[in-house]
Amino acid sequence: MAAAIALASVIVAGLAVHAFLPDTSATDIAGDALYAVAAYSGIVLLAPRLKPWVVALIAGAWCVAVELFQLTGIPLALGGLLPPVMLLLGTVFDARDLVIYIAAVVTAGLIDAAVRRPGKLDE
């Protein structure tokens, strides 16, 4: 239940950042971090028994794969046909996003580990 609430909250926050705030570096970074946390939360929702470090690894791999997929130009083309696709696949590659994704999933994993078993961050 907590993962579902986290995922819904992160999605709402991400959509709010996208819709209501000006397009700046700060909102881009916030959106990237929220995207990564949404990926993390979605994996926890689908596989709640996975250890936080495994979830972080999978979420990080997903985010990196999506970012690298943008190098093909396919997400940009699909986004032109169906704009909501841009929210899932992005549009153009930005190496800075890779750093933000990894930082966000590591942070989410540390928080998750602390919440699941206080005092046991090494799971």
UniProtKB/TrEMBL annotation:
Name recorded for this polypeptide: DUF2809 domain-containing protein
Organism: Microbacterium aoyamense
Membrane-spanning residues: 29-47, 98-115
Keywords, comma-separated and alphabetical: Membrane, Transmembrane, Transmembrane helix
Highest taxon, organism lineage: Bacteria
